[in-house]
Design a protein that fits this description.
2 domains; five-stranded antiparallel sheet; six-stranded parallel sheet; Alpha-Beta Plaits; 9 helices; elongated
Length: 221
Amino acid sequence: MKKEKNEIIIIGLGKFGMAAAKALSKYDCDVMAIDKSTNLVDEVSPFVTHAAIVNAIDKEALTELGIGNFDTAIIGIGDDLESSIMIALTLKELNVPNIIAKARDDMHTRLLTMIGVDKVIQPERDMAVRMVDSLMHKHLVEKMEFSKDYSIVEMKAHKNWVGKRLNELALRAKYQMNVICVKKELTDTTVFPNADYVIEETDNLMVIAPNKELDRMSRWE
């Protein structure tokens, strides 16, 4: 029988885990948060379905929580490499379908990936990359790496595009750039605009494009 809600467990309530718990409180899902600290468990309690004081490196304790029944586990322990690795191994052994983990550096990321963690996040590195992207691409609003070669980005309409139709701009032919949707003044969204769509100054375009072409954007005037 299909579950009515996603069930997510957050292991470790440092800044990363606590932020994840508070962000998930906006969505209709069941969230359990665990940590060794009584104060942190008390702090997170209003934002989650369940909160418990648990030593997550204890395999028996995780087993008793029914960890294998959760759809996703988020490991928020990044500074303690040994604990992070041990928890990830336990989660794999207990067949958690989707594991997301915080890592402190590239070596930690490689180890977690080798274990089979589905997604590894280096918060400081990822934040630095986003900052540099924003700095070097003045037209860029948001960027999400789709693969090693392609990204999906939200970008401001270039001044030379304003007043022109998409078929005039020939973005696909010139830059291998495919327009997914257009956001107009943050209220109206046109998904898959047709070739006759006329770009306006306040438009933001959501596009998928090769990273090499996006890098060229940094030189656009």
